[in-house]
Amino acid sequence: MNNHLVSYSRAGDVFHYRWAARRCLRLLYPNTTLRSIVIEGSHELQKAGEYVIDVSEYSQTVDEDKSIQYYQLKHTTVLGKKPMKLADMKKTLVGFADRFRQHERKKRKDPVSISFSIVTNRKLDDSVKDQLMYLASGEVVDSRFRNTFEKYTKLKGKQLAEFCKLLSVEDS
Fold first, then answer.
1. So what's the pLDDT on residue 1?
2. For residues 113 and 69, what is the distance between their CA atoms, to the nearest angstrom?
3. Cα(100)–Cα(13) distance, integer angstroms
4. 66-74 and 112-120 as β-strands: parallel, antiparallel, unpaired?
5. Is residue 114 packed enough to be buried (19+ CB in 10 Å), middle (13-18) or exposed (0-12)?
6. Which pTM was predicted?
7. Which of 7, 102, 120, 121 has its CA 20 to 30 A from that of 63?
8. What's the whole-number average pLDDT of the chain?
């Protein structure tokens, strides 16, 4: 008996496993700066936003510069043709913004470069993509979009622009 609901769910799992496995292969490169990968979370378990992080990558250069890349993977077999809107990323944006604020507070003691990525097989709505770029560059954006984004992230002004610079969406 073939249960289609289970196969839809498993498709997302398979996407996550394969994507993470490909990222882990980078640990084998002889000159990699990648030091470790955490799947389903991060090394900073007590920090906010832990539950939206699917993969974390920790790198360190020979000059001791450290960086952390946080990923949220979103896969769908049902909504693939429907462009992703801002509301579809709400939970992820809330968690990422909470983690961003904690890193900002700790920045002076332990300088670590961070970034946030949402990886999805859905296309991001073009207007959302444009508005995120405008926010990152400090340009004027649609007031409804800005208000909603500020509500989700609890960030404003320069902090909001800085967060948007660190955020990427790898779509389709």
1. 46
2. 8
3. 27
4. parallel
5. middle
6. 0.88
7. 102
8. 88
pLDDT tens figures, 107-153: 767 788 999 999 988 899 999 999 999 999 989 899 999 999 999 99
* Structure-token pair, residue 56: 């974390």
Instruction: Find the length of the chain.
Output: 172
Helix-then-strand count for the chain, H and E: 5, 5
Give yes or no for a contact between 92 and 103, defined as CB atoms under 8 angstroms apart.
no
Residue among 104, 120, 107 at smallest CA distance from 49: 104
Transcribe 109-151 into DSSP letters: TS-EEEEEEEEESSPBPHHHHHHHHHHHTT----HHHHHHHHH
13: tokens are 């799992």
Q: Tell me the three state secondary structure of residue 102.
A: helix
Rounded to whole angstroms, the Cα distance separating 133 from 72 reads 19
Nearest Cα to 83, choosing from 167, 172, 16, 143?
172
